[in-house]
C-alpha cells in the first residue's frame, strides 16, 4: 500500500560544507541498489532521501535492498500527502490509520516534524490537533505520550508525509565517499566480515584471493567468488584478483624452515596484494586478522607480516573474539558459505609447530633462501592472475 519510502541518514548530517557530496553519493547508491528491482525515483529532499516506488513493486525486496545500503540509518514506508493544506493533512492521517491498522484499539501519540518553518501551525499544535482528530474518528484509540504502542509521525515539507513503521538501516557512510582498499579475501569466516566493516565506512572494495591448484580445488575458488558476491550486496561490485600461489608455496616449502612456512607465505600474500592494491588506486589493505587467534596472528607475527607493506593495513576485527565475528557473519549472510568445507591454501602447507614469536630479522634471513627463484615466481603469479568482476 505504501507508495514511497523516506530514507534517513545519521552521520552524513555532520559533514558541514561537504555534506552535499555525501548526500549525493547516498542518493546514487540507493538508486543503484534499487535499479535491478524496477524504476524507482530517488531524490534528495531537505535532509532526507525520498524514494518513490513503481506501480506493483515488491515491498519485501525493497525493504531488504534499502537495509543493505551503507549510509542509511533508517527508513520508513510512507504515505505521501500531496498538499500541506491543513484539512487535507487531517483527512489523510485519518485515512492512513484506517488503512494501516485493522484493530483501532492501541495507544498512540502523534509526532510532528515541520521542515517548512513557514508552515502556519507549530509542531506541538500539529500533534495535539491530529491526536484529537484521530480520537474523534476512532474512539477506541487512546493517547499515551510516554510509552505509546504506535507513534504516528507526520512530516510537513513541501509535501506532507505520514508513517508509523521505522526500519533500521546498516548505518555507516555511502560507499565511494572514502576511497578504495584491497581486501585479502579467503574462504574463511573472518575476511568477508572485515571487508564488510571497512566498506561500511564508505570504502570501495577490491579483493585478492590466493589459491593453490591442484592442492585447492575449483570449488574452493567458487566459494570465495560466492563470498565476494554476498558482501557485494553491501559494498557494490568487487574486482576479485585470483592469484595462483602454488609455485610460490612449493618454493617456500622446499627452501625455508617449515615452522616459518605460514609467516613467510603470509608475507608474500601481503606483497602481492599490495601490488594489485597500488595498481588499482587502493589506499590500504584489509585483512581478517585478530590478535592471538592463530600462530600467524600473534603480535610478533603481525609485526612480521606488516613489515613488508607500505600501505596501511586495516584489521577491523583485531580486538574481536571469534563469537563476535561469527555473529556479524551471520547477520550479513556470509556465515553459511564460509563454513562450507573446502580446503584453503593456508591449511595445506602447515607446519606441526609454527613459530608463534617470529623475529623479523630471522624471517628476512630465511627469505634469502628464496632469492634465486622468488622474483620470477612473483612476476609469474602477478602475470597469470585472473580478474573477476563480482556483483550481487
Ligand atoms: P579467515 O577466516 O579470513 O580465512 P583465518 O582465521 O583463517 O581468517 P588466517 O588463515 O591466518 O586466518 O588468515 C588471516 C588473514 O589473511 C585472513 O583474514 C585473510 O585476510 C588473509 N588470507 C588468508 N588466507 C588467504 C587466501 N587464501 N587468500 C587471500 N587472503 C587470505
Ligand atoms: Mg583462513
Descriptive labels:
9-stranded mixed sheet; binds adenosine-5'-triphosphate; 40% helix; alpha/beta; 14 helices; 392 residues; Rossmann fold; 2 domains; 6-stranded mixed sheet; VC0802-like; binds magnesium ion
Question: What can you see in these coordinates?
Answer:
- This protein is an alpha/beta fold.
- It folds into two domains: 4-168, 2-Layer Sandwich (VC0802-like), CATH 3.30.2130.30; 180-390, 3-Layer(aba) Sandwich (Rossmann fold), CATH 3.40.50.
- It is built from 14 helices and 15 strands.
- The protein has helices at residues 19-34, 59-66, 86-100, 123-137, 190-199, 218-235, 246-255, 261-279, 299-306, 322-332, 335-338, 345-348, 360-367, 374-383, and strands at 4-8, 41-45, 48-52, 74-81, 107-114, 142-143, 150-156, 160-163, 167-168, 180-184, 204-211, 238-244, 285-286, 313-314, 386-390.
- The strands form two sheets. Strands 1, 2, 3, 4, 5, 6, 7, 8 and 9 form a nine-stranded mixed beta sheet that branches.
- The chain is elongated.
- The two termini are 28 Å apart.
- The structure holds adenosine-5'-triphosphate and magnesium ion (MG).
- Residues 186, 188, 344, 346 line the site of magnesium ion (MG).
- Adenosine-5'-triphosphate binds at residues 184-186, 188-191, 208-210, 269, 287-289, 293-294, 296-297, 344-346.
Amino acid at each position: 500500500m505504501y507508495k514511497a519510502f523516506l530514507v534517513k541518514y545519521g552521520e552524513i548530517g555532520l559533514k558541514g560544507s561537504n555534506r552535499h557530496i555525501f548526500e549525493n553519493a547516498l542518493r546514487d547508491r540507493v538508486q543503484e541498489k534499487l535499479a535491478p528491482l524496477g524504476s524507482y525515483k530517488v531524490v534528495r529532499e531537505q535532509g532526507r532521501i525520498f524514494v518513490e516506488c513503481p506501480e506493483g513493486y515488491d515491498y519485501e525486496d525493497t525493504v531488504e535492498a534499502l537495509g543493505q545500503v551503507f549510509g542509511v540509518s533508517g527508513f520508513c514506508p510512507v504515505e505521501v500527502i500531496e498538499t500541506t493544506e491543513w484539512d487535507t493533512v487531517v483527512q489523510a492521517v485519518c485515512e492512513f490509520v484506517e488503512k494501516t491498522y485493522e484493530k483501532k484499539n492501541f495507544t498512540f501519540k502523534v509526532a510532528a516534524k515541520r521542515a517548512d518553518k513557514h508552515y502556519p501551525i507549530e509542531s506541538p499544535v500539529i500533534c495535539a490537533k491530529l491526536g484529537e482528530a484521530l480520537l474523534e474518528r476512532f474512539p477506541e484509540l487512546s493517547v499515551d505520550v510516554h510509552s505509546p504502542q504506535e507513534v504516528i509521525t507526520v512530516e510537513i515539507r513541501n509535501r506532507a508525509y505520514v508513517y508509523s513503521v521505522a526500519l533500521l538501516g546498516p548505518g555507516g557512510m555511502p560507499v565511494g565517499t572514502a576511497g578504495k582498499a584491497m581486501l585479502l579475501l579467503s574462504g574463511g569466516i573472518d575476511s568477508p566480515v572485515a571487508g564488510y566493516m571497512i566498506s561500511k565506512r564508505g570504502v570501495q572494495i577490491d579483493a585478492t584471493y590466493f589459491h593453490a591448484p591442484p592442492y585447492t580445488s575449483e570449488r574452493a575458488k567458487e566459494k570465495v567468488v560466492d563470498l565476494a558476491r554476498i558482501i557485494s550486496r553491501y559494498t557494490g561490485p568487487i574486482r576479485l584478483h585470483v592469484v595462483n600461489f602454488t609455485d610460490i608455496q612449493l618454493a617456500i616449502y622446499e627452501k625455508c624452515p617449515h615452522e616459518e612456512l605460514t609467516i613467510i607465505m603470509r608475507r608474500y600474500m601481503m606483497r602481492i596484494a599490495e601490488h594489485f592494491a597500488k595498481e588499482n588506486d587502493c589506499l590500504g589493505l584489509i585483512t581478517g586478522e585478530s590478535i592471538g587467534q592463530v600462530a600467524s596472528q600473534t603480535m610478533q607475527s603481525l609485526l612480521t607480516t606488516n613489515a613488508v607493506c607500505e600501505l596501511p593495513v586495516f584489521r577491523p576485527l583485531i580486538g574481536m573474539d571469534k563469537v563476535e565475528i561469527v555473529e556479524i557473519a551471520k547477520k550479513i549472510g556470509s556465515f553459511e558459505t564460509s563454513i562450507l568445507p573446502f580446503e584453503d591454501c593456508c591449511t595445506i602447507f602447515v607446519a606441526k609447530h609454527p613459530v608463534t614469536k617470529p623475529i623479523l630479522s630471522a624471517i628476512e634471513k630465511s627469505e634469502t633462501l628464496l632469492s634465486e627463484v622468488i622474483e620470477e615466481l612473483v612476476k609469474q603469479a602477478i602475470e597469470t592472475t585472473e580478474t573477476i568482476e563480482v556483483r550481487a
